[in-house]
Amino acid sequence: MLNINYKLAQLEEEGRFIKVGLVGAGQMGTGMVNQISLMKGMEVVIIADLDLERARQAYIYRGEDPGRIIKADTREEALKALEQGRPAITDNARLICELDPIDVVVDATGVPQVGAEIAFLAIQNGKHVVTLNVEADVTVGRILSRLAQRAGVVYTLGAGDEPACIKELYDFAEALGFKVIACGKGKNNPLDYYCTPESLIEIARVKGANPKMLTSFYDGTKTMVEMAAVANATGLLPDVPGMHGPQATVEELPRIFELKERGGILNSLGVVDFVIGVAPGVFAIVTTDNLKVREELAYLQMGEGPNYVLYRPYHLTSLETPLSIARAVIYGEPTLVPRFHAAEVAAVAKKKLLPGEILDGIGGTTVYGLIVKAEEAESQGYLPMGLTGCKCVVKRPVERGEVLRWSDISLEEENALVQLYRLQKIM
């Protein structure tokens, strides 16, 4: 993101601002609003949330006078607020996608069905889309990216979340000619495939977290989704279904991520994975056959090789998202998009599922996500985890730990997410 600061400062000096519309005023969205308030050349001018008070508070946290905030129910009311330079709030996300002055729509909802519809509408109305909704991206990101390209706008995942931070390391290494052995992230909580919001209710209370969201972290779904996004952006593959997930320190990573015959855990090179013990960082394991470069890396205290770790010990989630907004508008470039169909996240039963039961989606009691190679998912007819919130009705008994297939369920075909997924399959 070199020189973005100067570009933004130049915009402000010229009296121009990137106008941002935000959908979702939760923790991530509110953090982004406040970070942008510290920046030049960019401003959040309208926020959509079903909880209007939450949207209002996002502005108030940044120091906004509550009396200046306008509730906009119609396009005309929103445009009037923007013309007057007053911050607007609405409970109608579609409204933001249709406002001419908006340059970029940011999705911070975390709900795949909502995120897919928001992105589609924004693209149709000529808006750049920056999404924090990795779940929607892994499900229909390929079609959204294609539609954005055809419309002459940018669709991208946001900087700051782990997939984008990993991609930065990957791009850095590949540009320098290193061979990438593995890319991954740290996981800072235990992996329990069969946990539920009910089993985590006390932990959620102590952490002040949403139990369903916390469940998506503990049952591994969030990690599987994030690493599938990395796989689809880079072409790296999961070495085994669910990845290996070893426990290790940063110093141990170059030795662990090596072929089995060389003392490591891998069946093949060029993989995505996660590690218990290096959170909240992200990493890339790289190598080179050039002896002189190896000598230089040893001199630079990168280790004796032949494998080396590039490690970023932090990711600032939505606080970094404004960099993707700026990159989309100023350079017309995405931060991270699916360029390959390398991985899918399949739905696996958390318990025995009976005919007539309705799946309750990511972070629920019925299913968890497992990353698999896209080729395997296609050949086996696995059900994508991102679609499990689309009124999926179980048609036959499914055992605990069994991967669900399309033939096991019926779902709501009218759902925007399902329709985009169907379109993606034929484009």
TrEMBL record:
Residues annotated as domain Oxidoreductase DRL-like catalytic: 160-321
Gene3D superfamilies assigned: NAD(P)-binding Rossmann-like Domain
Domain of life from the UniProt record: Bacteria
Gene Ontology MF: a single term: NADP binding
Signal sequence region: none
Coiled coil segments of this chain: none
Pfam families recorded: DRL_cat, NAD_binding_3
Protein known as: Predicted homoserine dehydrogenase, contains C-terminal SAF domain
Gene source species: Thermanaeromonas toyohensis ToBE
Source lineage: Bacteria, Bacillati, Bacillota, Clostridia, Neomoorellales
